[in-house]
Amino acid sequence: MGCVLFFVGQSANNAISDTVRRDAACLAKRGKQVTIVDLTQPLELPEPADVDMIVSYQAWGHDLATADGHRYADLAGCPFIVVLGDHPIHHAARILACPKTSVFCVGSQNQMTFLRDVLNVSGDIHLLPAGMFAEQVRRDGPRDIGALVIGHAQDPAAFLAAQKLPPALNEIIAAFAERPLSEPDVAPIMDYMRSGFDRVMQIVGNEASAVSVGRLIDLVSRRHFRWRYFQVLRKMPVTFVGDDWEKIPREGDDAFTAQPSIPFKALAEVYARARICLNLHPPYYDFHERLIDAMTQGAAVATPETALLQSRFDFGQNILALPVKVEETGPWLEAQLSEPAALATIGQAGREIVEREYGYEKPVDLFLGVLAAKG
Question: What is the pLDDT of residue 148?
Answer without folding.
Answer: 97
